[in-house]
């Protein structure tokens, strides 16, 4: 199987599975506990039908939108995800370059493997910095200042990860950073020698967003311990309100799921929220973002920009979210599988296919721009 054989989400997933050692693939692929929420994220879109209009004159289709003051050419963006150079040695460099080519926004994680400063210098498209709330308040301020110094306009605080989810696939393989693999996990790496050579012979793996502030090397700290020891489970709305004021620009909360929390985010001055259950990787049994979208848009859609992520695999999924009032839709596994499959060409192929799907589907729906997508075009089973 080659990149040219990849025509959809599932094809990229299959090719990624062939390229990656099983523990690395499972880190991308897996969810928490019984993985119920992981499966329901995509299934939620299947319970919604599109009702197209015809004879609307749709020779020209405009996919652009504005999110938290950032104008982008597509209504999808590349969500911030951790550890990308484990999936392909280009990592975030491939992701950012592909996003720039398609004129869309990309996010850089606190657990990213390329520095936000380097990416901001190289690429002109909007960049979002995603970070976590630490026990050390000075560290939080230092990380925000580093983002300002890098020229980043939008901060995205993840609020659903004050502790790590129970990801049992990782427990079975022993996956962690640094590696603490079980014997079965080690054997899986031996079956993918090309990945191992890239990991050993190319640029040394690092976490540059954190390396300046935390010792993440050697035996000092695994990713699991980072979540359990460094992040602050006592975080509350007053803490976040102070961060919003300190940042002084567009501030977004990722991981909001209830109407009450959405209203609180608007009250403290957030420019946007991402409805998200962290791709089914945190609280198993959580409601899906798509199922929560309508009531949250009805409650606060006139006060801030609403985005969603989780389970998005098709252009029709994007149209359904936009019709309910989402300003943009975040992609996660969709581009990570493509990255693992073929680096930058993989991510570009995925984005090209997503762009073609959205364009074609909008024509079939009889709409010329995403503002013409409205709830009346949907029916729920």
Helix content: 40-55%
Widest sheet: strand ordering: 4-11-10-9-8-7-6-5
The CATH H-level superfamily is Aldolase class I
Strand count, sense and closure of the main sheet?
A: 8 strands, parallel
Sequence-ordered SSE layout with sheet pairings:
Blueprint: H1 9-19, H2 22-29, H3 36-46, E1 48-50, E2 65-67, E3 70-72, E4 76-78, H4 84-87, H5 92-101, E5 106-109, H6 116-122, E6 127-131, H7 137-149, E7 154-158, H8 168-173, H9 183-190, H10 193-201, H11 208-211, H12 223-230, H13 237-247, E8 251-256, H14 259-267, E9 272-275, H15 289-300, E10 305-309, H16 315-323, E11 328-331, H17 333-365, E12 378-380
Parallel strand pairs: 4-11, 5-6, 6-7, 7-8, 8-9, 9-10, 10-11
Antiparallel strand pairs: 1-12, 2-3
Structure description:
The protein has 381 residues and is of the alpha/beta class. The chain has a single domain, classed as TIM Barrel, CATH 3.20.20. It has 17 helices and twelve strands. The strands form three sheets. An eight-stranded parallel beta sheet has the order 4-11-10-9-8-7-6-5. A two-stranded antiparallel sheet has the order 1-12. A hairpin with a 2-residue loop joins β2 and β3. α1 packs antiparallel against α17 and α14 crosses α15. The longest helix is centred in the C-terminal third of the chain and has 33 residues. It is globular. The chain starts with 8 loop residues before the first helix and ends with a strand. The mean pLDDT is 92.
């Amino acid at each position: 199987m080659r990149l040219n054989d990849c025509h959809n989400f599932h094809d990229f997933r299959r090719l990624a599975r062939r390229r990656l050692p099983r523990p690395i693939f499972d880190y991308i692929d897996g969810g928490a506990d019984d993985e119920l929420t992981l499966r329901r994220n995509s299934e939620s879109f299947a319970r919604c039908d599109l009702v197209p209009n015809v004879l609307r004159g749709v020779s020209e289709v405009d996919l652009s939108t504005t999110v938290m003051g950032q104008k982008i050419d597509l209504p999808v963006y590349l969500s911030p995800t951790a550890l990308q150079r484990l999936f392909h040695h280009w990592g975030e460099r491939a992701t950012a370059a592909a996003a720039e080519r398609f004129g869309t926004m990309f996010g850089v994680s606190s657990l990213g493997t390329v520095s936000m400063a380097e990416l901001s210098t190289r690429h002109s498209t909007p960049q979002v910095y995603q970070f976590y709330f630490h026990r050390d308040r000075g560290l939080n301020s230092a990380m925000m200042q580093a983002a300002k110094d890098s020229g980043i306009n939008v901060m995205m605080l993840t609020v659903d990860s004050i502790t790590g989810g129970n990801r049992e696939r990782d427990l079975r393989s022993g996956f962690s950073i640094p590696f603490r693999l079980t014997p079965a996990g080690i054997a899986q790496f031996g079956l993918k020698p090309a990945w191992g050579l890239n990991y050993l012979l190319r640029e040394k793996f690092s976490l540059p967003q954190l390396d300046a502030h935390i010792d993440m090397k050697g035996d000092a700290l695994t990713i699991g311990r980072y979540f359990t020891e460094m992040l602050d489970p006592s975080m509350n709305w007053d803490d976040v309100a102070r961060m919003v004021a300190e940042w002084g620009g567009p501030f977004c909360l990722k991981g909001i799921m209830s109407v009450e929390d959405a209203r609180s985010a608007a009250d403290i001055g957030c420019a946007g929220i991402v409805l998200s259950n962290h791709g089914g990787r945190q609280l198993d049994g959580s409601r899906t973002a798509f199922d929560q979208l309508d009531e949250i848009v009805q409650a606060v859609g006139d006060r801030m920009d609403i985005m969603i992520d989780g389970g998005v695999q098709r252009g029709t999924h994007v149209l359904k979210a936009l019709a309910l009032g989402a300003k943009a839709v975040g992609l996660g596994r969709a581009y990570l599988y493509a990255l693992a499959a073929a680096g930058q060409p993989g991510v570009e192929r995925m984005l090209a296919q997503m762009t073609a799907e959205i364009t074609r589907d909008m024509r079939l729906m009889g709409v010329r721009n995403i503002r013409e997508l409205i709830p009346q075009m949907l029916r729920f089973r």
